[in-house]
Specification:
With 475 residues, this protein is mostly helical. It contains 20 helices and 5 strands. The structure holds a DNA duplex (15 and 15 nucleotides).
Length: 475
DNA sequence: TTTTGAGTTGTTCGA
DNA sequence: GTCGAACAACTCAAA
């Protein structure tokens, strides 16, 4: 391209400078780079980002704008309209972006690409968010995988991940083009429900790399065991950073492998397979875009879900009477995040014991998680409900008492988020309703008054769930 | 081509 | 206390 050409780089879920294929290629072709972000919520329909995501996004955008010396053009509105109009106004030669997997974006981006090309503008798109392109991994017969292990072993490990790209050294930014007539208002969270500072979150590329370093230093070695312990710092907490693309999975994997120094390590293998689960989710959503709302296994269309507002609300508010569940739901509400082990426990209670439709659960998580990711969230809920790909055996129903005792043995996690149980002795921390009158009187704690009694009986609800699952037709 | 065995995260029951 | 069996049906890959 000649000296004077301008290339638009459209940032979406790749809010980073380093290892960003779209940005890298735009810079490499010698064009002046015009970075753009569009708040395009209106096009997302029912999957517009929730409050927690908006909170994170605003901070991440600010961080990216800093990295671009304040040159990020931030618009609000219909992306199809804005990108095409903007490209024409600034006389852009090309538009670069990294692809996403949300169905509404896939459809929309395809149409934008067409419009741009018709207007004589080049379009260059890249896989920036996944180790492997979700569209490219396939079984030998060309069809997509539905089981994780072969997807991972055959589909992914057979491919080479691309090389990591440095931040463009010679990035020439367009500092002038600021056309009128565009809405530049940022999107504010509909409901700003948690404090900024106290959760230790640091949205943005810098924060992502800090989180990775912290994990490499103090979490990786013990990952195999500690990853299941919500009372310990055993997980990376990289999920929101990965979702918004503040760091790429390539960077994360390379750093982890590098830290292991070539040594065989169970923890490293385990962690990388977790990254592969993220890949699997994207693969599934890409190939089955209806998955956000429809059961992958059609026989579940006839599952006898129950509608019960009161039970659903008790679950949302962390008032089920099962301490590990309530701690998780309150952690979610207070911090915008929940430990993975606890996500499975709360999901199991909702879909199996309360027998409430998984879509109510995925919807709540969508609105409250800072790492809300359409692919991961959908896959996780379908997996928990047993209606998804490579589903859990139908009889795998978590017992929140056993899970609590196994993974939060001292009740430290429970006490942190359910403070009214602070003085309950360890032996009863996961089943406070068993406290007798004398035990309870000792701490002044009374089950049913200071903390809810269980809203559902585990034994009978489990039996009912098993019966309901058995009643489903074979296909 | 057909058959066989394994598949992220569990619980309960009875010996 | 521990231990093994049972709790489906389907997908995928290897034999």
């Amino acid at each position: 391209m000649p000296e004077t050409t301008t290339a638009i780089v459209w940032f979406r879920q790749d809010l980073r400078i380093a290892d960003n294929p779209a940005l890298h290629s735009a810079a490499a072709c010698g064009a002046t780079v015009l970075p753009v972000f569009i708040h395009d919520d209106d096009e997302a329909g029912e999957w517009a980002p929730g409050s927690a995501s908006c909170w994170w996004l605003r901070k991440s955008i600010a961080s990216l704008n800093d990295s671009l010396q304040g040159n990020l053009r931030i618009f609000r509105g219909d992306a199809s309209d804005i990108i095409v109009r903007f490209a024409r106004e600034v006389g852009a030669r090309a538009v670069f972006w990294n692809r996403c997997v949300e169905p509404w974006r896939v459809t929309r981006d395809r149409s934008i690409k067409q419009q741009l090309q018709q207007a004589g503008v080049e379009v260059h798109t890249f896989n920036g968010s996944y180790l492997y392109d979700p569209a490219e991994v396939a079984k030998p017969d060309g069809t997509p995988y539905r089981v994780f292990t072969p997807f991972y072993r055959r589909g992914c490990e057979a491919l080479d991940p691309r090389t990591i790209l440095p931040a463009p050294a010679d990035l020439r930014l367009d500092t002038k083009s600021r056309p009128d007539g565009f809405d530049e208002k940022p999107v504010l969270p509909a409901f700003p429900w948690f404090g900024d500072a106290d959760q230790g979150w640091q949205p943005g590329e810098r924060g992502a790399h800090d989180a990775l370093e912290t994990f490499l230093d103090s979490g990786l070695d013990i990952y195999t065991v500690a990853r299941d312990r919500p009372d310990l710092n055993g997980v990376s907490r990289l999920s929101p950073h990965l979702h918004f693309g503040e760091i790429s999975p390539h960077q994360v994997r390379a750093a982890v492998v590098d830290r292991a120094g070539g040594k065989q390590s169970e923890s490293v293998d385990k962690f990388i397979s977790e990254l592969a689960w993220r890949e699997f989710s994207a693969h599934l959503l890409y190939h089955w875009p209806e998955l956000t709302n429809d059961n992958l296994q059609k026989k579940f269309d006839r599952f006898p879900w129950r509608d019960n507002e009161d039970l659903q609300q008790a679950w949302q508010q962390g008032a089920t009477g099962y301490p590990i569940v309530d701690a998780g739901m309150r952690q979610l509400w207070q911090t915008g995040w929940m430990h993975n082990r606890v996500r499975m426990i709360v999901a199991s209670l909702l879909v199996k014991n309360l027998r409430i439709d998984w879509r109510h659960g995925s919807r709540w998580f969508w609105d409250t998680l800072v790492d809300a990711d359409l692919a991961n969230n959908t896959m996780g809920w379908q997996w928990s409900a047993g209606c998804g790909a490579d589903a859990a055996p139908y009889f795998r129903i978590f017992n929140p008492i056993l899970q609590g005792e196994r993974f939060d043995p001292d009740g430290r996690y429970v006490r942190r988020y359910v403070p009214e149980l602070a003085d309950v002795p360890d032996a009863a921390i996961h089943k406070p309703w068993t406290l007798g009158a004398s035990d309870a009187a000792a701490g002044g704690f009374r089950p049913g008054r200071d903390y809810p009694l269980p809203i559902v009986d585990l034994k009978t609800s489990r039996a009912e769930a098993l019966a309901a699952l058995r009643s489903l037709p074979a296909r």
